[in-house]
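Changelog excerpt

This revision adds worked examples to the README so contributors can see how folded entries look when concatenated. The first example is reproduced verbatim below.
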Amino acid sequence: MIENFLRPPRTAGEWAADALRVVGLLSVIGAAIWSTATDAGILALALPALLIPRFLGVRSWFDIAYSVTVLVAAWSNVLDLYRTLAEWDLVAHFVCTGVLAVVAYLGLARFSIVTDPRDPAFRGRTALVLVTVLGLAASAVWEMIEWAGYVFITDEIFVTYPDTIGDMAIGGLGAAAASVLVGRARLLRPDA
């Protein structure tokens, strides 16, 4: 995995994916200077997520889609889009949880915990179950982070029981839908 991370970008897509990681870093710095510590913290949560595809060696098209999704989700919080745009919260949870669950599956495959999608023994139905479960777990963790932020940092974070359950349910559906990518798309570079 270190080799994937240290490998220089070779295509325009790989350069674009790395540029999105730089945008993530500059977002945190910009928020720290011109906005609030809470906004900088929210954007900082995206930084580790932006690095994971680089370690895994995913193809640039998925790396770009994943990184854009993570950045949009983080900036949507900073720009308060979750409160001002009806249903934006559900769209973000559906898409973001889906791509995060796929990356989680690929990470587990990298450590030989689950079957690598490139392995002949791989079964799509296994990915459907496991990616969905990973998405539900990620949704639960995210909702706990939101709750902790509300309780310990600021009461400006919107937390209600129906919102929490709805976010987790739609996140699970997004993960189930995204599991198709694991079974049908070539997500990892051949040399990864």
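The second example, added in the same revision:
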Amino acid sequence: MKGISYSRYGGPEVLAYGEVRDPKVGPDAVLVRVRAAAVNPVDWKCREGHLDGILDAVFPVIPGWDVAGVVVRPGTSVTEFAAGDEVIGYVREDFLSRGTFAEYVAAPVRTLARKPRNLSFEEAAGLPLTGLTAYQVLTRALGVRRGETVLVHAAAGGVGSVAVQLAHHLGARVIGTASARNHDFVRSLGGEPVTYGEGLAERVRGLAPEGVDAVFDTIGGETTKVSANLLAPEGRLVSIADPEVVAYGGRYYFVRPDAEDLLRLSQLAEQGVVTVHVSRTFPLERTADAHRLNQEGRTRGKVVVTVDGAEPGSGR
């Protein structure tokens, strides 16, 4: 089958399009024909070796953790899905090797849920990692409650845009940092936009003089430090970008595959609670360009790669 792979760490230039190994389908997995796969910051961070200290790379690596596609064949013990089912998945293993930027992927059932019927494959591909991250941080790590004020950083980005919608659905008041050009977009999601950068603390305090109850940090570094100083008494801070958040009394969170959480997200999407904004799509062979665009860090919503599948084992 055709796919994207890299045999060493590096920039987008290490990504090669061509023949890759066909996936083997275990008893508790399904073979999925990939229709779309979203690009996430973690993809290029893995590609550059930033996660080498926690994830082994089995080269050549097929990158990608997000997928939307169609079940071709269930494993021998799988009863949850059948051939022809449309699914989404956060297909993360505990090492880097067999990802979703290919015509097919073998996905464990613990990573999958049924695709929202009202979303295209491109939109649905942008939901798993970002949606699970937002859902798990807001409901588990931060425990956001109705009536609280939540600060979401990078509110126009992939994770941030879903977090704003979910926090609003939970009954929270949501303040979201974004560039001026994305303020209307953040408002459309249910948030109150503030411009990031110098003077951010003063702008947030202007909206929440007594501090915010919870901060969802997606940026790290100086933003984490500033966020800690914006908390109300008993306020909570969680970062998905900076493990050093613990130095400020916060918590670091790394999203986990969870079929029940993913199913809940699919249901929320079908109810219109969560939408996915796709800013641009690329064909599979241009995955390197998709990585470059995502790495710029200024994308509204999601960048998605689309895939034309072939028959498994056909050599195409």
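Reviewer comment on example two: Confidence is low (pLDDT under 50) at residues 310-316. The longest helix spans residues 128-141.
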